[in-house]
């Protein structure tokens, strides 16, 4: 060793209050100075092997759907003594490059609200950097996920709907590549089938208000009488409501009942009063950070899925059952 | 020197392709290994004095108002070769502690959408870490700001309003502590005065939809006939519109004309069609990162304010003038 002392002694020198002789301290400090090595957060990380940095991967669409998530994740990470290193990916961004760059900063762990490809995840394994996906399902055993139980949410919604006449039922999904949309639609299809309610083939849109608005005419065509539209998220549902009222002259819920998923703030505005499913976003953020910290500390193993229960919010956009 | 070579030689060893003899490389690598020093992003930063990390301070309210800002800032920072280290502050968070922690990570610069107190800013000066505030005005010469010209925006809005009868004009400001709200209200008051339009005393709310909704009755009381409400942001304006229509049975814009500021996506929804001022958020994010990079490279000096011009968006919530 250059400073003539062991690694653990070097470590003690940079830890406040740790026992170390004056001579040893001087030796180590001289060695450190030679490499511009000061006891700051980054330099200290070379000894403790922890930087306190948590890489958080976000995408444009995920940020739009849950604007508060990043804030909640940040608060939880800070309460655990860490800091967020954020990487913003374009929707179709190549994730391996971003992962390589995050790893170069020696993060302690990664949280991603984007879908990481297998190559990205496999890169994290030898680096001993655990990965937790936020509300994204995966079949890769080297990642863990925390999410909302999408199937259970749709089950609650369909049970509520089935208590009143539904008319023709149609389903408006998100983009075909979106796994959360797929989970929600699978849940809806399963619950509708169990209740013996028929439905039209699933249509896809892009998760946006504008996409919902533009899909409405096609969604409702070819049927007379009352209808019900189940949407994979709130933004599209609000677009469907506005298209019904301002473009097609239809009343909600008398002519068309509409439901969403997420419970974004606008769902509760008087103009909409959308019946929807509330994802426990704050609790999900807390559980995500807790799971990552357990993986970093080695008290949990990867490959786990934690699903939190969502809640039904019945408002004015759906029809009330005979008892209601 | 422990490795028996100079600092610049150490530097060359860790820079790919730099000329350095085999013997020297071995010496330095041995010295580096002794301190667990590997040529990764963090270790490299000890030599280049740059980490590529940009500290970004966000607050709950700023994140709500501009959910896309963080994403845009992230993209711009990444295009400049850096990464965002995000710190989420609670609204009344003490900023000095957060600043100290950011500085411990040896960031190259700081962008803040929160108001940093003077103590925080003075801490950054000896560390040679430039600070750029995003859409926050300051009188501290050690910070620079990029923002939207709030006064000019209100000027455009009042000119548009003045072309049609306004009735009684009232002003709904954001929280008293919010400098952007103050800038906007000052702009409105100045423009109204110049146009010779009288207005009721300014009322304050909390920048939220719910706050706008709850302020509406008080805002409109004590006057008969048509009225106009100028709001300091869109969220409150949308709340005022819904309160008028769903609680007070008033028509927008016939009975009450309503205007906002920001041009959030909901402002353009068919249920609202809010007349508002569009902040050029994406261009503001680009200008903020560019300014910070110039400060880091030493090609700009601090204390500069760059204000970008907003645009008027006339929609259905305001009255049309005789020519319109």
Briefly note the structural class of the backbone of chain A: alpha/beta
Oligomer designation: homodimer
| Major beta sheet, strand line-up of chain A | 2-1-3-4-5-11
By CATH, the architecture of the largest domain in chain A is named 3-Layer(aba) Sandwich
Number of domains of chain A: 3
Describe this structure in words.
- Two copies of one chain form a homodimer.
- Chain A folds into three domains: 7-48, no CATH class; 53-149 and 281-309, Response regulator (Rossmann fold, 3-Layer(aba) Sandwich); 150-279, Rossmann fold (3-Layer(aba) Sandwich), CATH 3.40.50.2300.
- Chain A has helices spanning 7-14, 22-34, 41-48, 60-65, 69-79, 95-104, 118-124, 150-161, 179-194, 209-220, 234-246, 281-297, and strands at residues 53-59, 83-89, 109-112, 131-134, 143-148, 168-173, 203-204, 227-231, 256-259, 276-278, 305-308, 311-313.
- In chain A, helix 5 packs parallel to helix 12 (281-297), helix 6 packs parallel to helix 7 and helix 10 crosses helix 11.
- The relative contact order of chain A is 0.12.
- The first copy, chain A, has 324 residues and is an alpha/beta fold.
- The model of chain A is unreliable at 33-39 (pLDDT under 50).
- The longest helix of chain A is centred in the C-terminal third of the chain and has 17 residues, at 281-297.
- Chains A and B meet through helix 2, helix 3, strand 1, helix 4 and helix 5 of A and helix 2, helix 3, strand 1, helix 4 and helix 5 of B.
- Strand 2 (83-89) of chain A pairs antiparallel with strand 2 of chain B.
Structural descriptors:
Rossmann fold, four-stranded parallel β-sheet, 12 helices, 324 residues, homodimer, alpha/beta
């Amino acid at each position: 060793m250059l400073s003539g002392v062991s690694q653990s002694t070097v470590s003690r020198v940079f830890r406040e209050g740790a026992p170390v002789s004056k001579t040893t301290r001087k030796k180590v400090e001289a060695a450190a100075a030679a490499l511009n090595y000061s006891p700051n957060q980054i330099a200290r990380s070379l000894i403790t092997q922890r930087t306190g940095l948590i890489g958080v991967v976000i995408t444009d669409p995920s940020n739009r759907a849950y604007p508060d998530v990043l804030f909640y994740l940040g608060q939880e990470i800070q309460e655990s003594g860490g800091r967020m290193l954020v990487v913003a990916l374009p929707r179709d961004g190549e994730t391996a490059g971003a992962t390589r760059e995050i790893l170069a900063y020696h993060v302690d762990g990664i949280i991603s609200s984007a879908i990481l490809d297998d190559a990205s995840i496999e890169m994290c394994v030898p680096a001993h950097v655990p990965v937790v996906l936020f509300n994204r399902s995966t079949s890769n055993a080297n990642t863990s996920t925390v999410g909302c139980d999408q199937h259970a949410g749709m089950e609650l919604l369909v049970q509520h709907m089935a208590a009143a006449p539904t008319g023709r039922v149609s389903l408006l999904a998100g983009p075909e590549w979106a796994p959360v949309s797929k989970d929600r639609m699978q849940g809806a299809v399963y619950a509708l089938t169990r209740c013996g309610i028929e439905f039209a083939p699933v249509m896809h849109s892009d998760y946006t208000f504008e996409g919902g608005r533009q899909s409405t005419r096609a969604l409702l065509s070819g049927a007379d009488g009352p209808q019900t539209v189940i949407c994979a998220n709130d933004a599209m549902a609000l677009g469907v409501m506005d298209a019904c009222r301002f473009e097609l002259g239809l009343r909600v819920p008398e002519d068309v009942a509409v439901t969403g998923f997420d419970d974004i703030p606008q769902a509760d505005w008087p103009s909409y009063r959308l019946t929807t499913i509330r994802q426990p976003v704050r609790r999900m953020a807390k559980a995500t950070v807790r799971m990552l910290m357990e993986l970093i500390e080695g008290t949990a193993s990867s490959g786990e899925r934690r699903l939190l229960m969502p809640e039904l919010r019945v408002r004015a956009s759906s029809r009330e059952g005979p008892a209601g």
